[in-house]
Design a protein that fits this description.
two-stranded antiparallel sheet; 313 residues; Serine Threonine Protein Phosphatase 5, Tetratricopeptide repeat
Length: 313
């Protein structure tokens, strides 16, 4: 019995496995697994290389505080210019309007201590850049994720920037006045006002009198020339060129006499009048101011004229 069953067992083991029916419950899972295994995997997307452009007010303040602290050390030591240069450089690196306004303040303090108008121009420039950023932060196109300061502080900082510019303009006007006052010569001592004692009138009258005397002299010379020419012309021996020359000389003499008479008359009349008025004022002034003991009088003589000043000094 045992020997007869062996071929049957061998026959059963020799059947191919593919001929065996598969369980109904295993067939769907096997198909899904096979499909997933045959589908190629997708490559992972590379991470975005663009930096995050967001900034919070707390992060901005954290970056700002060490810069302000370092600038304060320089300012406390009296080096406002070093503080201003540091703040201006960091303000551009961080695009921080607060640091721009701080730089403007430091430049203004440096200009005040050094009395340098060029530093005022730098202060105004920094303040205007800070104001431009603050104004843009209030624009509808502004990216709210970049909050360098809280929105509630923008108005106060803008007012600070405008006040800084006004203060810079006031300081610039003061420095201009100082420069104008220092560029001129040292002020001369105030000249005492000339007393109204008639001296000016007397001096002017004396000048006119001298001119009048000169006119009289010219008139006399002209008359003398005319008389001499008349004698020559009346001489029967004078004729031809000599006669013509004597006639021309007589005409010149008449002209000199007329001019001299006119100048002499005007000069003497004007001079005497001014001297009279000046003498009257001089007398009144001496009565009111007895300390003054000066006298200015014209002096005339043959062939000369002038002024004589007498008195006690």
């Amino acid at each position: 019995m045992t020997w007869l069953r062996l071929p049957t067992l061998v026959l059963a083991l020799s059947l191919p496995l593919t001929s065996l029916p598969a369980p109904a419950s295993a067939s769907p899972l096997t198909s899904v697994w096979a499909a997933a295994k045959s589908k190629p995997k997708k490559k992972p997307k590379p991470a975005s290389s663009e930096p995050d452009n967001s900034l919070s007010a707390a992060e901005a303040e954290e970056a700002r505080e060490p810069v302000q602290a370092q600038a304060k050390v320089s300012a406390d030591a009296g080096d406002h210019l070093a503080a201003a240069e540091l703040l201006a450089r960091k303000a551009r690196e961080l695009s921080d309007p607060i640091l721009f306004l701080d730089a403007a303040t430091a430049y203004k303090n440096a200009a005040d201590s050094k009395r340098d108008r060029a530093l005022i121009a730098l202060a105004v420039e920094e303040a205007r850049i800070g104001l431009d950023i603050l104004n843009f932060m209030q624009d509808a196109r502004y990216d709210a994720t970049w909050e360098v300061i809280p929105a509630s502080q923008v108005s106060a900082e803008s007012s600070r920037g405008r006040e800084l510019i006004d203060a810079c303009e006031t300081l610039d006007e003061a420095l201009q006045r100082e420069s104008a006052a220092g560029s001129g010569d040292p002020p001369k001592p105030a000249r005492e006002p000339t007393p109204k004692d008639g001296r000016g009138l007397i001096a002017a009258g004396s000048v006119f009198t001298v001119v009048g005397l000169g006119g009289l002299g010219l008139m006399g010379a002209g008359i003398a020339m005319g008389v001499d020419a008349q004698k020559t012309v009346e001489d029967p021996a004078t004729y031809g060129d000599a006669f013509d020359e004597a006639d021309a000389k007589g005409k010149r003499g008449n002209m000199f006499a007329i001019i001299g008479a006119s100048v002499g008359a005007v000069g003497l009349i004007t001079g005497v009048t001014l001297i009279a008025i000046g003498a009257k004022k001089r007398k009144k002034y001496r009565e009111e101011n007895p300390v003054a003991q000066l006298r200015l009088t014209p002096t005339f003589g043959q062939g000369r004229g002038g002024l004589t000043l007498t008195g006690r000094f």
